[in-house]
From TrEMBL, chains A, B:
Matching PROSITE patterns: POLYPRENYL_SYNTHASE_1 (PS00723), POLYPRENYL_SYNTHASE_2 (PS00444)
Organism: Oenococcus oeni AWRIB429
Protein's name in the database: Heptaprenyl diphosphate synthase component II
Needed co-factor(s): Mg(2+)
GO molecular function, one term: metal ion binding
Length: 325, 325
């Protein structure tokens, strides 16, 4: 089982993430070999597993049945994979985590059904392990918000006048709500009071938003990533993120001629835009926002009871802000 | 609210199907106007609403909270719509129920998210109204089987040697399991014993299989349907159904030259095949199977307690076998 090296410093989390992956694998059992194979490869591709990790961490403020918590961690990562696979269908993305995407390898049909299948696996895990309807209902509520975020992003594609508020609404939905579901479930299902769980949910939202901001920044600054991801594909697909939106605000005339070419933009065009983004401080401004959200999360985490998990939460949340890839 | 005229003879069911549609509408609330509009149009397109109707009927053997039952009926029809929308993405089908499909009208992305969104709406209704985890778990179990059926159908496309057993496995999954989920939920959630609900589940499976057989037969015999559906599109897509499989069994050499053209088949090719299917008794043989499954269901229904719902179940199940469209 390949666990991302970022967890080497946290042996307990690393151990439980290993169990999470094993349980995910165990639950993938379709009669359909290509689908199973594709999903299993994706499980083993060494993703960061941040959502299950935060779920695990927020469950550690109480003594609780670890098997149940690990099953819920598996559910949340499986839900995340389902959304990734369907996003790749929509973006017609050829790659995912440096590998050929399911969509590219096995075709669109397999990708649509694989995503649907993972939704069901997630559902089954929740139905088996959630302690009450509250957890289940919360899941539905977040899924709703995640999809609304994704659909809003879809509708606002190629909107040259997209505001930073619209961007935040999109990412609060598509990324924030998945993180906040993870932190809520971890807190709630380990037997914490609803007040604690609602607080965990708020912290998760801030972490998720900061994480997405950093991800969008790294699209411009991380050269290593270009192996795994098509370069500035989002831009070509009309998905404009914080660095671009913030840089473009005062200088639309410079950006529009390139962006107007939409998916006909050449690599040179996107490179030109990337230069403009840096020139007009898009990265710096976006990083400021990420810092603000991380800081909010850290202040909230600081108020949590003093348990070993608290220290890990602080370290990891800080690390995510400073990461280079 | 447009209710299919097939329910005119059953005023109580018709009334509750009206409430079911109203509740479905009420639960479609996305920020995304195209998605909402597309889904609402589909809700009002006058489908037969068989799955919710069977759920309602199987809930009438006990006195129970009708609002709850209607919510679950809405959930089951919404789940059905979700699978239809994703099927249309996979088939790249231009039409659905005589209208332009969501896929065709709004593009593939909207269709993928619309289906996902409906899965979530269904999930939320179940989480709110199901009386315990048993119903929820059953739902997951059936969804799994439905998807396995659909994925098997996808993999077995263009298999010129597909057997009738393979076909039955496909339709037991994709159609049978949705019907049997409906009948199970109706029986179980109205407070019947698990034994009764398990029996209802079996009956639903037989009804669903018979229904799908008839649907596949009508693809060859119902001329009116050609307004709503592309003619023999399934054949071109490599999905071979009972009439074709049964006619082809002894005469593969006659069918193969046409079928081998796969999606390059012309309308003339598919017409030739349709003629061969009739010539070699594909319709007759498939009808025999449909009769067998309907008979099985009717014998099982006959053993149910004597309530008004029993009479309606018998009539409707018979009617489905004899329908011409």
């Amino acid at each position: 089982m390949k666990i991302n090296p970022m967890w080497d410093k946290y042996p307990l989390i690393k151990h439980e993430l290993g169990l999470t992956l094993a349980l995910m694998q165990k639950n993938i059992k379709t009669d359909n070999e290509p689908v199973s194979k594709a999903i299993l490869e994706m499980i083993n591709s060494g993703g960061k597993l941040l959502r299950p990790a935060y779920l695990l961490l927020f469950s550690m403020f109480q003594k609780t049945d670890r098997n149940k918590i690990i099953a819920l961690a598996a559910a949340i990562e499986i839900l995340h994979m389902a959304t990734l696979i369907h996003d790749d269908v929509i973006d017609e993305s050829p790659t995912r985590r440096g590998m050929s995407s399911i969509q590219k390898q096995f075709g669109q049909s397999t990708a649509v059904y694989s995503g649907d299948y993972l939704f069901v696996v997630c559902f089954n895990l929740l139905a088996e392990y959630a302690s009450d309807f509250r957890g289940i209902q919360q899941y539905g509520h977040h899924m709703n918000a995640i999809l609304n975020g994704e659909m809003t992003q879809m509708v606002e594609r190629y909107d040259l006048n997209i505001s930073i508020d619209q961007y935040f609404k999109q990412i609060s939905g598509k990324t924030g709500q998945l993180f906040s579901l993870a932190t809520f479930l971890g807190a709630y299902e380990s037997g914490n009071k609803i007040k604690f769980a609602k607080n965990a949910e708020k912290i998760g939202l801030n972490i998720g938003v900061s994480f997405q901001l950093m991800d969008d920044i790294l699209d411009y600054t991380d050269n290593s990533q270009q192996i795994g991801k098509p370069v500035h594909n989002d831009m070509r697909e009309g998905v404009y993120s914080a660095p671009l939106i913030l840089a473009m605000a005062q200088h639309k005339d410079l950006f529009f001629p390139f962006l107007k070419k939409k998916n006909k933009m050449t690599d040179q065009d996107t490179e030109e835009i990337a230069k403009l983004v840096i020139e007009f401080d898009g990265i710096k401004k976006a990083k400021k926002y990420a810092e603000t959200y991380t800081k909010k999360a850290l202040i909230q985490i600081n108020d949590l009871p003093d348990k070993p998990a608290k220290k890990a939460l602080i370290d990891i949340t800080r690390e995510l802000l400073d990461r280079q890839s």
